[in-house]
Amino acid sequence: MTSGWLCKILALGSLVLVALPIHLTGQQQSVEQQQLTHTRYVVTDLGTLQDGPASFAFGLNDSSVINGASILTDGTFHAALWHRKFMVDLATPGLGGLNSEAFGVNERGQASGLAETSEADPNGEDFCGFGTFVMCRPFIWQRGLMKPLPTLGGNNGEAGQINDLGEVAGNAENRTLDLTCPASGPQRFQNKPVVWKNGKAEELPTFDHDPDGWTFGINNRGQIVGASGVCSSLNPQTGVYILSRHALLWDEGKLTNLGNLGGTGAFGPGNIGGEINSRGEVAGTSDLPGDTTFHAFRWSQETGIQDLHTLPGDFASAGLGINDTGRIVGASFDANFNSRAFLWQNGVMTDLNTLVPANSPLFLLFAHGINSRDEIVGFGVNSAGDIHAFLAIPCDLNPASTVPFDGVPESGRESTMQGPTPVLSENARSLLDQYLGASLSLRRAPITEILSRSIRRSSFIWSPAAFASKPHWSRMP
Fold first, then answer.
1. Residues 6-45 as b or e (16 or more Cβ within 10 Å = b)
2. Which residues have C-beta within 8 Å of that of residue 182, sequence separation ≥ 6?
């Protein structure tokens, strides 16, 4: 269940918008090598709400329920869930504001994320980052109802992933002025890592007295990963207002610095622990020496931090999701910051686009999440140049099979690989720019008032059949 807000900060930090279309140069693995080590996939375009222009998938649970957001025709972002042929708009009724996004979903059908209210932020902050300057709340959603979660004393907060116990990772600001923030803003107060248990916010420590911190991933053992660092002035190249200096793990009250790949966290996304599986293995991203680029990493207690490198010929990479078998997904970038979704397993990183047939509906830009069934979600670009969320389903779990999923003999397999890369339309490019740019304010804006309302944990158990029958689900076209 990968956190979308982490993915978005990685996306903008990597300047994915700089030079589209995306090229496939540098892919050196042969088709035969890939077939020996990688499952092949069939890709489904998840579509959008109300025929909107774009959608983004951030993660999924083991029941194949997908969390993310869809842009409507009026330009607003609505938190959304997908399951089979159905979509649900979590923003109806929402928390009264225009924009929302879902960053997690668990096996009980509970979703988490952030949502705007209709109330103006008294400090003129734009915490959600949509240019509306209203207050932004962390939320938990279930049975068609979105409820706000309490903050640490401020007006705003955000919720990330949610585990099957209903525990939610996220961050919230307190009322302490952050002296590392520039006087010009946009952030003024300390932004602290939190976990919500039984609807109550519990502040987590940061590393080395860092004033700011963020939690991104949480597993069913209550282990949490994220980062801490300092507020920053705007980086004109990446739009980043924070410096994530330390990739962190919180486990039963113990804080562990996951280390880094040689960088200080001053470039792009910085040093971040992004997602953790049930075995305590972490996928994340770290700057390299000199802070001129960043690579995806894998961390475990036994091995420490390991550089996953990039796809052949690429310049940078970001680790975004990990499942319980240790497979990692993310994005790899060439020197012009064109992105390709990747799958890492058995020590090898592979372009996910080479594992799908040539007639797939999307070219896959970012892989955000992977579940225990090896299903992968993210977003890509279609032949019209529009950005849509995708679900990639493994279709041949036997690597020794002599008949690929599309029925083409192995000798003709190369011709079935992903064809020419579509070019983003100007509208899609603008939407992606708006989306990724807005996301960076998710952990940079101040908060000044506590929510008194807490959420009781529900005994509701997830039932796909029950959800599909609810009136708030709409059938996909």
1. bbbbbbbbbbbbeebebebebbebebeebbeebbbbbbbb
2. 231, 232, 233
Q: If you average pLDDT over residues 305-334, what whole number do you get?
A: 96
Q: For residues 412 and 138, which has the higher predicted lDDT (pLDDT)? A: 138
pLDDT at residue 252, rounded to an integer: 92
Class of domain 4-460: mainly beta
Who contacts 350 (Cβ-Cβ below 8 Å, separation ≥6)?
Answer: 29, 34, 37, 38, 311, 342, 343, 344
The dihedral formed by the CA atoms of 216, 55, 81 and 364, expressed in degrees to the nearest 10:
-70
Place of tokens 């269940």: 1
Q: What is the pLDDT of residue 462?
A: 26
CA atoms of 180 and 70, how far apart (whole Å): 34
pTM of the complete model:
0.81
Euclidean distance between CA atoms 358 and 405, whole angstroms: 12
Binned at pLDDT 50, 70 and 90, residue 411 comes out as very low
Handedness of CA 167, 58, 237, 292 (dihedral sign): positive
Contact 190, 212 (CB under 8 A): yes
Q: Please, which pLDDT band fits residue 28 given cuts at 50, 70 and 90?
A: very low
**Which sign, positive or negative, has the C-alpha torsion 146, 163, 174, 259?**
negative
Q: Compute the residue count for the chain.
A: 477
DSSP, residue by residue, 226-254: EEEEEE----TTT---EEEEEEEEEETTE
